[in-house]
Design goal:
Layout: H1 4-14, E1 18-20, E2 23-24, H2 36-50, H3 55-58, E3 59-61, E4 67-69, H4 78-92, H5 103-115, H6 117-120, H7 127-141, E5 145-148, H8 158-162, E6 171-175, E7 179-190, E8 197-200, E9 213-218, E10 224-228, H9 244-247, E11 251-262, E12 266-269, H10 272-276, H11 278-282, H12 284-314, H13 320-345, E13 348-349, E14 355-356, H14 359-384, H15 402-408, H16 416-430, H17 433-443, H18 449-459, H19 463-475
Helix pairs in contact: 1-2, 4-12, 5-7, 5-12, 12-13, 12-14, 12-16, 13-14, 14-16, 14-17, 14-18, 16-17
Length: 477
């Protein structure tokens, strides 16, 4: 397991091609204003896992005596899942659940794919062996990984995707003895260019064989470019931007400019059946959903604590409408906790010996959270009211007007600066560009909510309940 300095040094040494605000980032990424906050926050996670008092929770030992990070461990018991949940949430509590792509998110996917590697070898090539080798590489070096699955939303018509004269979605344009050549683009890579490696899988509508590929490559691979959106980390001040200054992850369009992917890095290729059975065989989405719900529970804990502190600061807790709003947050938190526990209790061992969390409560949680999170942010805004607008900066408190601010912005039980500091957190999660992105991120975490709901309905085992009603009707004849 690496520590924070090792992570930072490695990312800086890669010299990934990262573009932001019209320029390629020539500085060390860890020292570049848009990225230094999130890189430092991730370094904190790596340091935390290396603390001696955290070793039992954050590491596991293999039969050969080697220690590795918890997220690479193939769970085989319910206790293994519980340990994974505890570690994930310990990491998440260092950032209030606001970092959507901590290291364990993609590590979990790599573990699930590698554990089911025989499935990836059902085609003409033994790609499962590639996946096992990549898993061993990631595990031994404690790599950080981001991913990109989505095609650009340029033109959703099939004719557009199949027209080689207008390539937008990344596709295979050549196959040779060294590997496959990818050209086009994919989105939306959170922390794109800020990790050791990039994992790519097909997603959405599968059009033809040239779009069926999966691989993992270093982020500094020749021809690979990360085109970042504007950073919401507008200033370094953790007073003015308490969340964005530390946890702004960034999102990027990933451009593949004739990128050669070596054969030993390819894990899926031109096999419809392997792709269509991928989730059922590996449990990959159940594991990703499990990690996400673990984090989202912590995010609700943070939101509940924040709103309670706001109520206390301005003494509004005794109003009935405030209690009603606070109860909404509590109910949401307990629903998410219950669904998470249900996924553990009802987990099952798959054919590869992996204990996979039950996907039904996790998919329920994903559908629920996408709808309830925007409402809970609205509650934060309603509770904060004008206190989330009248927010001077850190510099204001060091100026000649600090006396006025101290007199007129104090809280019921805290001074003005502490009150403003508190409500700036609420503003940053509920009203700033960073906070708006957080809401959109959770709303579309696993894709289009309508498509996800429809898919859940189609796959849910409803027949037994239909039969129950039919049996009841038959018994009354």
């Amino acid at each position: 397991m690496i520590n924070g300095k090792q992570f930072v040094d490695r990312i800086d040494a890669l010299q990934n091609e990262v573009w932001i605000e019209g320029k390629r980032c020539e500085d060390k990424l860890s020292e570049s204003a848009p990225f230094k906050g999130i890189i430092a926050s991730k370094a904190e996670l790596y340091d935390y896992q290396c603390c001696s008092e955290q070793q039992e929770l954050f590491s596991y030992t293999t039969h050969d005596g080697e220690k590795y990070g918890f997220s690479y461990h193939q769970p085989q018991t319910v206790e293994d899942l519980i340990n994974r949940r505890k570690a994930t949430q310990s990491w998440a509590r260092l950032n209030g659940g606001l970092v959507g792509r901590p290291p364990d998110y993609m590590n979990t996917l790599v573990m699930a794919l590698a554990a089911a590697s025989p499935h990836l070898s059902k085609g003409e090539r033994p790609l499962g062996e590639n996946m096992k080798a990549l898993y061993e590489l990631a595990k031994s070096k404690d790599l950080s990984i981001t991913h990109t699955f989505i095609n650009p939303q340029v033109n959703r018509s099939i004719s557009h995707y199949l027209d080689d004269a207008t390539i937008t979605a990344a596709k295979v344009i050549e196959e040779n003895k060294d590997g496959i050549v990818i050209h086009g683009a994919k989105l939306l890579a959170t922390q794109g260019g800020l990790t050791d490696e990039l994992l790519v899988l097909p997603s959405g509508q599968t059009l033809d064989e040239s779009f069926i590929f999966g691989f993992m490559i270093p982020s500094n691979t020749k021809g690979l470019r990360f085109l970042c959106r504007e950073s919401y980390r507008y200033r370094e001040s953790s007073f003015d931007h308490p969340l964005a200054a530390r946890f702004e992850e960034g999102d990027s369009l990933v451009v593949f400019d004739n990128v050669l992917v070596p054969w030993n890095r390819v894990i899926i290729y031109k096999d419809f059946q392997v792709l269509s059975d991928l989730d059922a065989e590996t449990g990959m989405y159940a594991f990703l959903q499990y990690q996400a719900v673990c984090r989202q529970v912590v995010k609700l804990e943070f939101l509940l604590g924040l709103c309670e502190a706001m109520c206390d600061a301005i003494q509004i807790s005794e109003f009935e409408h405030v209690k009603l709003k606070m109860t909404e947050i509590i109910v949401s938190l307990e629903i998410m906790r219950a669904l998470l526990l249900s996924s553990e209790v009802n987990s099952e061992i798959n054919r590869y010996g992996t204990r996979v969390p039950d996907s039904k409560p996790l998919r329920t949680a994903n559908n629920y959270f996408a709808k309830t999170y925007p409402r809970l942010i609205e509650i934060t805004q309603l509770l904060g009211a004008s206190s989330m607008i009248s927010l001077p900066t850190e510099d204001d408190f060091e100026s000649k007007i600090k006396g006025d601010l101290g007199q007129y912005l104090q809280g019921a039980n805290i001074d003005a600066k502490e009150r403003v500091k508190l409500f700036r957190i609420a503003w940053d999660i509920g009203m700033s560009a960073f906070g708006s992105r957080q809401t959109q991120f959770e709303r579309f975490f696993f894709g289009d909510p309508i498509r996800l709901s429809t898919s859940f309905y189609n796959s849910y085992p409803k027949q037994a309940y239909h039969d129950m009603v039919q049996d009841f009707l038959n018994s009354k004849k």
